[in-house]
Amino acid sequence: MVTSDETPPEDANCVAVHALGEESESVIGETLRILADMEDVPVDDLEPLYHRVETDAVVSLLAHARESNSAVSVEFTVDEYTVAVSHDYRESPRDESQVVVEVVDGT
Q1: Domain membership of residue 77 as a residue range
Q2: Which residue has the higher pLDDT, 39 or 14?
Q3: Can you tell me the distance from the alpha carbon of 106 to that of 38, in angstroms, rounded to the nearest whole number?
Q4: 46 or 27: which carries more pLDDT confidence?
Q5: In terms of DSSP bridges, do strands 98-105 and 14-20 run parallel, antiparallel, or are they unpaired?
Q6: Do 49 and 55 meet the contact criterion of CB atoms below 8 Å apart?
């Protein structure tokens, strides 16, 4: 199970979420939840993320980074938002994989 540790954004146009755990697939769901919150709409009202980006590729990259204790970062846009998903094994204070999801409003 992934737990989220939402950090307060530095400004109202940016949300960063640190999702700790091993389920990379839930990072996609977390990204959608953040986008829905920023748009102030239910998640079901958003176009599926796989229409915008190869979500399987993102999940595979995160899984590979976790397995090999490597860093990886993927950035893509969804409408006016820039989404950055990164993994850096070395950043975790508990020596666990750390996945960071950051969404920035480009308007």
Answers
A1: 3-105
A2: 39
A3: 12
A4: 46
A5: antiparallel
A6: yes
